[in-house]
Design brief:
The complex is a heterodimer of chains A (about 100) and B (about 425). Chain A has about 100 residues and is mainly β. Chain A has a single domain (about 5-95), classed as Folate-binding superfamily (Folate-binding fold). Chain A is built from 2 helices and 6 strands; from the N terminus they run βββαβββα. In chain A, the strands form 2 sheets. Chain A has a 4-stranded antiparallel sheet, with no helix packed on it. A two-stranded antiparallel ribbon of chain A has the order 1-2. Chain A is globular. In chain A, about 15% of the residues are buried. Chain B is α/β, with parallel strands linked by helices. Helix content of chain B is about 30%, strand content about 25%. Chain B has 12 helices and 18 strands. In chain B, strands 1, 2, 8, 9, 10, 11, 17 and 18 form an 8-stranded mixed sheet that branches. Chain B has an 8-stranded mixed sheet with strand order 5-6-4-13-14-15-12-16. In chain B, strands 3-7 form a two-stranded antiparallel sheet. The radius of gyration of chain B is 21 Å and the shape is globular. The chains are: A mainly beta (about 100), B alpha/beta (about 425). The interface of A and B includes residues 18, 44, 46, 50 and 104 of A.
Chain lengths: ~100, ~425
Amino acid sequence: MLLIKCPFCGPRPELEFSYGGEAHIARPQDPMSLDDEAWTEYLYIRSNPRGVHAERWRHINGCGRFFNARRNTISDEILETYMIGGSPAPVSEEKDRSPKGGAV
Amino acid sequence: MKRFSAFSLVRAALSGQSTWPRQWRSPEPKPSYDVVIVGGGGHGLATAFYLAERYGVRNVAVVEKGWIGGGNTGRNTTIIRSNYLFDESARLYDHALKLWEGLSNALNYNVMYSPRGVLMLAHNIHDVQSFKRHVHANRLNGIDNEWLSPQECKEYCPPLNVGGEMRYPILGAALQRRGGTARHDAVAWGYARAADARGVDIIENCEVTGIRRAASGHVEGIETTRGYIRANKVGVAAAGNTSVVMGMAGIRLPLESFPLQALVSEPVKPVFPCVVMSNTIHAYISQSDKGELVIGAGTDAYTSYSQRGALHIANHTLDAICELAPMFRRLRMLRNWGGVVDVTPDRSPIIAKTPVPGLYLNCGWGTGGFKATPGSGDVFAWTIARNEPHPINAPFTIERFREGVMIDEAAAAAVAH
C-alpha cells in the first residue's frame, strides 16, 4: 500500500485515495472542432510510461480534493505531489532513477 | 526433439531418466530472420509455433528479455473459458478453447488441460440478468453455458456456502463445462519445445532496445542487448511492456499497464472440484493438481510496472473467498506474486497490423490472456504470414477506438476479467 502525501492533509494511506488516471490531459476547449484523431488521442491514448508518470489522485475519504502526483511506475515511489493546475518541480535525474536501475 | 511416449519414458527409465536432451536450444541470434517475435510468453511462443507448423514460416526467432515462463504466462490463475458475450469475442476465445482440447497431442507435451467446469457466481439481480443473457448469447454462438440454481451450484461445488446469511449470497451461477484450467508453465515449455523442434530460435535474456525502419517506413530489424537482428516482419507480443516496445516505433496506444496479483495456499487434499469465479466480489479460485488453492485477485488502482500488487488487494479477495467457502478460513497462504497486464479501454485485445508496414501487434489481453494463448497465437501467426488478419481477429484492430467500433467486454461483465 502506498503512503501518499495529500498537499492539503499530509501523508495518508492509499486506502483514503482514489486514482484519477494520467494528469495534464486537458478537456478540449472547442469539442466541435475536433476530428476523430484528436478525440481518440484525448479519450483513449495514454503515455503509459515505464518510469515517471504524472497522474491525478483524489483524497476521496479525506478532504475530497484532487491533486497531481509524479510517481515512478517501476518502483512505485511517489516523487512529489502538487496542485491541480500546477506544474511539477524540475526533473531531477537522481530522484527519477529506479532504485534497481530500471531492470525490474 | 526427443518425443515423449510410453516407450521413450520406459527406455529412459533404464538409465535413470538422465538421457533427455535440453527441451529447447539456447542459440546465438542469427544476423537475420524472416520473422522476429518480441516477447517469449505464451502468446509469442504460440505465434512462433503456428508460424512454423501451419503457415510454413520456419526462419523465426522469439526474443525474450527474461526467461521462458518468467512473465505473465507463469504468473496467472490458468482459467480457461470462452463464454464471452459478444460474437467477436466468443469466436476468438472459442477458437482458443478448441485448440486447448487437442493441445497436449499437438505439442507432444502434457499441458494438463483439465475441463473441470468454470462456475461464474451471481450475487445480485443484475448479475442474474446479465449472466442469463450471457447463457443465451453463448448458446446462439454454439458455446456451452448453462444456468445453475443455488442448490445445483452446491451439488456441483460442495465447498460453496449457499446459505442466506452472506453479505452477497449466491443466487445462482453460469456454468461452462468445457472451461477449466491448464498447467501454465507446461504451456510455455511445451510451445517453446515444439517451436524449437520446428526450427524456431528462442533467444532468452535478449531485451529489445530499438526498432529500425527503412526510409520507406517499413520495418528493417530490431536492436537488442545481444546485437542487431534484421527482419522484414516483427510481431510484438510484449504484454505489460507493449507501450514501451511500440514507443520505439513511434506508436502511441490505447493501453495502460497494471499489476495483477495471484496467490496460492498451502497444498491440501482434493477439496475443490472446479473453477469458481465471482466478478462481483472479486474472487477467482481453483485447486491445482499439487493441491494448492490457486487464487486470483484484482488489479491495483494505479498503473505500474512493478510486478507486485498491494496487500490490501489480496486481502479483499481472501475476505471474499472465506465468505464463499468458509472451510478455507484456517488455510494458510504460501506465496503471492504480481504480473503486469496491459489493459485496453474496452477490455478486448488488439491483434492487428499497425500503421508501420511489417510491424504487427498482439496486446491488450488485460487480466484474461492465458485462456486465449493457442487461439491468439494461431490468428496472429496467420496475420503475420499473410499480411492480413484472419477473419477471427479482423475486428480486433487498433482503429476500432478511432471508429468507435468497440468490443465492449468491460461493459458486458462490469469488471476486469
